[in-house]
Design brief:
The complex is a heterodimer. Chain A is of the alpha+beta class. In chain A, about 50% of the residues lie in helices and about 15% in strands. Chain A is built from four helices and two strands; from the N terminus they run H-H-H-E-E-H. Chain A has a two-stranded antiparallel ribbon with strand order 1-2. Chain A is globular. The relative contact order of chain A is 0.16. By secondary structure, chain B is of the alpha+beta class. In chain B, about 50% of the residues lie in helices and about 15% in strands. Chain B contains 28 helices and 23 strands. In chain B, the strands form three sheets. In chain B, strands 15, 16, 17, 18, 19, 20 and 21 form a seven-stranded mixed beta sheet that branches. Chain B has a six-stranded mixed β-barrel with strand order 4-5-10-7-9-8. A four-stranded antiparallel beta sheet of chain B has the order 14-22-13-23. Chain B is elongated, with a radius of gyration of 38 Å. The chains are: A alpha+beta, B alpha+beta. Chain B: It is found in: Cell membrane.
């Protein structure tokens, strides 16, 4: 089977990019991840991940309009590419395939 | 009530922002900074300003990661700084450009090689001088003893020791691990089986071999000098006498015909290196000295050197202190002699002391005067600096001609670093060529340098780590500084402007002009100093000495014969010689003779309440006649009056002035503090004369004829017609008058000239340095003028078309350079004036620095500069303007 080069954090960032369709840039993505997962994520981690994703061709970016709150600086807006979407689907497929093959269903841990 | 100032919107920490701007890749900066600022304001609302600021800093620091940094994420292609194929290309291009501009290249290489060559010579000289005696093991613990005497005429140092000092030192002080006497007996004849050579035989103690590290090639250092009749010969001498034969055990005959003594060779020792103060061809025990028996317990005959080795950890100053009671005990006579002469203790309380000088400083004398070495280093640096300026200037001037290449390279994607490496590499290549040429030049010129300066440099000295390191540092320094700046400058060109051709119009080159000014200032400075030094030397030589120095021959008697006897025999022998006018003797030589000895005897006392200090000169009959010193009053010593030889003196005019006597003849000179002594009656007054040359101040002289003091020098005046062959005739008479001694006669005028050897060396050196400096500066100006005029070809063409004539164009072209030369002169002249004023202050008789020197040097500098430029400017002015204007 073909291996997809996508780390766990990258996967989350990639998913967030889809979630924020059209308004996915550094700060927004960071805040969204914090909100959704409750992890403490730092800006530089997100930027590094976005940088890697762009190098892998899973997102592409363009500069947005300048905004006043950023001192007139433009945002870099990220959009997922078809390859990115396909990668997510592949991962999904692999996982569900494994889940189906499991001899017994996974049991969630119930707290006492 | 004051209104609180309206709080401006909080800003992210500036320092962190600056940091981000510095390290962040330019194309990422906008979005990153935007995100960071947005986050900052978000956090400001959430957690307050203080924590938001902290967070901001933390976030910025988090971005110090490769993806955000400049180096890896350039918008340009990321080729490595130095690639092998690129390097090859640079080399090819460099060789091509250098070859294309042969004039520039050869000028550069010539200038650099001359400077490197001079520097190598001067540094080698300094290194050689400083390396003297440094090859001995444990040299820090080896010392030479010397006597410090605070004589009335000034502090005095002497390394001549009495015979019994060394054994006494060894016996009295356990910390003296070894001590040896060294006595040079001059050249002795050594013969073996009919072969005869005159060689330098050193008389010494067995400790000589333990103290010094001259390697023994044959024999053992512990027992080679055990026997009184052992002799150790140098490797060279062994080769001369024995060839390939084994010398050990062979018997050599030493001494002159009839007085020979046999010595058995017990060892062969390596030749002393050039940088050894101790020189020898053979070594024997000191007990073999002719006067050993009479002097072995004599503490007042000073004629040999003493070296000692102290135990580890013994402090030199502390040991010198411990030597004080020793000096009191054994050398009490010296103390009383000095006291009788009126000497007083110096500031440290020493009237007379035995002191030590480190072996490594023995070469420079007890006071360790190394000033002349620092002069050499300074000169070397000035010359190197001028050469560096030339190099920088030429490279800068060529910047403009190569600006297009840089522009094209930049548009094709060359980065600053690459351009820098390329251009700098070319500079290094040039520098290397100059360096190698300089070393070759040094190799070729070494014999000439050695004869000119009386040096003993061999190229072996270059193969020492210290020298190699120094030369390499020099090379790297020149390449780095002189070549680095133009490379940096060129690599910063803006490609757009360069390709438009704008660069050549911008800034006429403040750097270039200031470098030219400094070059010329240094050259003019050296030239002024040279002229003044030469004038002073000439002035000293031409100063009237007060006696007739021509046609007088001075003969040192040496310590093997009795001067009085020799003088009497010589008088008898030459009595009938019509070419000899008169003969006399003295204890002080006039000038610097072939024996290389200079001595002085002075004495001071109080006379009628006046402090009097005078030279105390022993003379013989006919001294005044022989030297043609005019008698002002009274009479000369007369052989017909036998009492003249006791307590009668002749004084010079300045002595009479010092005594305060208008009519001194017939007066008795007596020390106020010693009224019982029989005073000296003044029988004559003579005009002042310079006993010690014009480098020291004229001093009052008192002449006496006491038979107790030895005559050391004999003076013979001959007729002017008999100068030819006079020396050889005298030599013949000398052989019979003083058999077995060496004849070292020389003309007094030559001796007096030899006193100014130091000044001569100094002015020689300055002449050479300033000559090279002027030459280098002119070479630099020549090239700069060429490049500047090339750039102005069109301007000249337009001027000519508009009706300018040749002379006005030459004027326009020369004006700028003349201005520069004038500025440099205005810097150089005051500095030269000040420096030479300081230098002249060392002399009691000095020239007044005349303004004409500066005017002359200034005019010469201007003329030389104009001539240098004129080669190009005239050519440019005469050129056909059509050609200049058609140039595309």
């Amino acid at each position: 089977m073909k291996r997809t080069y996508l780390g766990e954090f990258e996967e989350i960032v990639l998913l967030t990019v889809i979630l924020l369709e059209g308004n996915a840039y550094g700060v927004a993505i960071t805040h969204e991840i914090i909100e959704q997962t409750g992890r403490s994520v730092r800006l530089n981690q997100v930027h590094a991940a976005l940088h890697r994703l762009e190098e892998k061709g899973m997102v592409y970016s363009k500069m947005g309009e300048s905004t006043a709150e950023r001192g007139g600086r433009r945002k870099r807006l990220f959009t997922i590419t078809a390859y990115g979407e396909q990668t997510l689907l592949d991962i999904q497929a692999v996982r569900s395939q494994f889940l189906q093959l499991l001899p017994r269903p996974l049991k969630p841990l119930t707290s006492l | 009530m004051k209104k609180p100032a309206q709080a401006s919107k909080p800003q992210p920490p500036r320092l962190a922002d600056k940091l981000l701007e510095w390290f962040c890749a330019p194309h990422l900066l906008e979005e990153l900074q935007g995100d960071l600022h947005e986050e900052f304001y978000y956090q400001l609302e959430r957690v307050g300003e203080k924590r938001a600021r902290l967070r901001y800093v933390w976030d910025v620091l988090g971005f110090i990661r490769p993806f955000a940094m400049k180096c890896t994420s350039s918008t340009y292609s990321s080729s490595p700084l130095l690639h092998v194929s690129m390097f090859q290309s640079y080399l090819t291009i460099a060789l091509r450009t250098l070859w294309r501009s042969k004039g520039y290249t050869s000028l550069n290489i010539a200038g650099l090689s001359v400077a490197f060559c001079i520097c190598t010579f001067l540094f080698l000289t300094v290194h050689f001088q400083l390396s003297f005696d440094s090859f001995h093991q444990g040299k820090d613990r080896i010392f030479q003893t010397y006597f410090f005497k605070n004589e009335p005429e000034g502090a005095n140092w002497s390394d001549n020791m009495p015979m019994p000092l060394t054994p006494a030192l060894k016996a009295s002080y356990p910390e003296v691990q070894g001590a040896t006497r060294v006595l040079y007996s001059g050249h002795s004849s050594i013969s073996y089986k009919g072969k005869r050579v005159d060689k330098n035989v050193v008389l010494t103690d067995p400790d000589f071999l333990r103290l010094f590290s001259f390697p023994m090639l044959k024999g053992h250092p512990e027992n080679a000098l055990r026997d009184l009749s052992s002799i150790i010969i140098s490797e060279k001498l062994a080769g001369v006498i024995f060839g390939k034969e084994d010398p050990i055990g062979k018997v050599l005959q030493l001494g002159s015909e009839g007085k020979q003594k046999g010595y058995m060779v017990s060892g062969v020792i390596a030749d002393p290196p050039e940088n050894s103060t101790l020189r020898y061809d053979a070594v024997i025990r000191i007990e073999n000295a002719g006067n050993y028996l009479s002097t072995q317990n004599q503490w007042d005959a000073f004629f040999m050197q003493t070296y000692i080795k102290l135990a580890p950890g013994v402090d030199k100053a502390a040991f010198e202190n411990k030597l004080k009671p020793f000096a009191d005990q054994y050398l009490a006579e010296e103390f009383s002699r000095l006291k009788n002469k009126g000497a007083r203790p110096d500031k440290a309380g020493d009237l007379f002391a035995i002191r030590l000088v480190n072996l490594s400083d023995v070469h420079f004398g007890p006071t360790g005067n190394k000033a002349s070495l620092y002069q050499l280093v300074c000169l070397a640096f000035v010359i190197l600096l001028i050469a560096c300026f030339n190099f920088t200037n030429l490279s800068m001037a060529r910047c403009f001609t190569r600006a297009r290449e840089v522009g094209v390279r930049k548009t094709l994607g060359a980065r600053k670093g690459q351009l820098f490496v390329q251009i700098w590499g070319e500079a290094i290549l040039l520098c290397l060529a100059g360096f190698i040429a300089g070393l070759l030049l040094t190799y070729v010129l070494t014999p000439g340098f050695n004869t000119f300066f009386g040096a003993h440099l061999t190229l072996q000295y270059m193969w020492q780590p210290g020298v190699i390191l120094l030369l390499l540092t020099l090379f790297v320094g020149v390449a780095l500084i002189a070549g680095g700046y133009p490379a940096l400058f060129m690599s910063k060109f803006n490609p757009v402007e360069v390709l438009k051709g704008k660069v050549s119009l911008k800034r006429p080159g403040i750097l270039r002009n200031s470098l030219i000014v400094m070059q010329f200032a240094m050259s003019a400075l050296l030239a002024c100093c040279t002229v003044i030094a030469l004038q002073q030397e000439q002035y000293l030589r031409s100063m009237p000495t007060g006696f007739e120095k021509e046609q007088v021959i001075s003969i040192p008697v040496g310590n093997k014969a009795d001067g009085r006897q020799v003088l009497a025999r010589l008088r008898n022998r030459l009595a009938g010689d019509p070419t000899v006018i008169s003969i006399t003797g003295s204890d002080v030589n006039l000038g610097y003779g072939k024996d290389g000895v200079s001595s002085r005897s002075a004495f001071s006392f109080t006379y009628n309440g006046r402090e009097v200090s005078t030279d105390w000169l022993l003379v013989d009959y006919n001294y005044l006649k022989t030297l043609s010193i005019p008698l002002l009053a009274g009479r000369e010593f007369n052989p017909a009056i036998p009492t003249d030889s006791v307590n009668r003196v002749i004084i010079t005019q300045s002595m009479a002035d010092m005594l305060g006597e208008g009519e001194p003849v017939g007066k008795i000179i007596r020390d106020d503090n010693n009224p019982e002594a029989k005073g000296n009656e003044v029988i004559g007054v003579i005009a002042d004369f310079h006993l010690y040359g014009a480098t020291s101040k004229l001093h009052p002289i008192t002449m006496h004829m006491s038979h107790h003091e030895p005559i050391n020098y004999i003076f013979v005046r001959i007729t002017p017609q008999s100068l030819q062959g006079a020396i050889s005739r005298l030599q013949g008479a000398w052989k019979q008058a003083a058999p077995g001694t060496e004849f070292l006669g020389s003309f007094v005028d030559e001796n007096v000239d030899a006193m100014y050897e130091d000044q001569k060396r100094f002015s020689h050196l300055l002449t050479l340095a300033s000559g090279i400096a002027v030459l280098l500066s002119c070479a630099g100006l020549f090239a700069i003028a060429l490049l500047v005029i090339e750039q102005r070809t069109k301007e000249i063409g337009i001027r000519k078309v508009l009706g300018a004539n040749v002379s006005s164009i030459i004027l326009v072209l020369s004006k700028e350079f003349v201005k520069l030369v004038l500025i440099s002169l205005s810097i150089a002249i005051p500095v030269a004036w000040w420096l030479m004023q300081e230098w002249l202050a060392n002399f009691p008789y000095q020239i007044a620095i005349s303004g004409w020197v500066f005017a002359g040097v200034g005019a010469a500098a201007l003329l030389v500069a104009l001539l240098t430029i004129s080669v190009h400017s005239i050519k440019a002015a005469l050129a056909n303007p059509v050609k200049a204007l058609r140039q595309e």
